[in-house]
User: Fold these one by one.
Assistant:
Number 1:
Amino acid sequence: MPGFVGEEIEPVFEEAPALEKKTGAPSGFRLREREYKIQRVVKEWHEYNQSRPGGGWDAGRPPYAMRGVRNRGSWGQGKDFYRVLLDDGRLVDIYYDRRPKSGGDKGRKGRWVLFREIGDAQR
């Protein structure tokens, strides 16, 4: 059923990515003990100039005044989105959040998220 999902996933790569923070789309992912294969990437986009969640000093600033643009690709900033076709025929959006996870053992790595389900590609 199409709609928002918002669950963290474990990416599966055929080959280890050369860059930890610029991985490209995975070949699949694991969610709730099930593995999904990605048939192909339909669309890719990047958002590097987002305001912090919940507002903050930059909330409400016009896009041309955002400071994140000059930090494009900087460590821990932005999200890399991928619209992918799964092996079961569904279209979904996943993203890599480049911000480091909080917590002692999480380290400096970001996280992968199944953002939303678009629907069946056959329709």
Number 2:
Amino acid sequence: MKRRTFLKTIAATAPLVAVSTPTLLSAKATPKSPNAMDLKTALKAITGGKAVTDSDKIKLVVPEIAENGAVVPVKIHVTHPMEANNYVKTIHVFATQNVNVRCADVHLTPANGKGYFATRVKLAKSQDVMALVELSDGTFIKTQKPVKVTIGGCG
């Protein structure tokens, strides 16, 4: 390579490096999503501060070990009546240690017939997956299970 070509290349790339370096360094300090929310904040926003109790009425099916955190299957089945005044109103799915813990919010009516939901979620690392269920009387029940992730799914 000729000396002049080398110097021109250096001169052309120097401003790009000077501009991009502070951006790359500050990327870790800023949240990755405008919706970033921790578990405590998300629970308070959904429940309005009401008590949440653990329940065995919720069957949460997740793998113990997920090879790929980008596609972790989740199934939630709530053993509860689906009658006009007594039904599963909402099922919320959380990944407790993701930047944005909220994965899914599903609203149900008695016409659904069952309190059931299945989806796939992204998990950044090994963590608990939580199912929070709101019943039609305004009470909240939950359950959670740990999932070990071998390859993270969020970047």
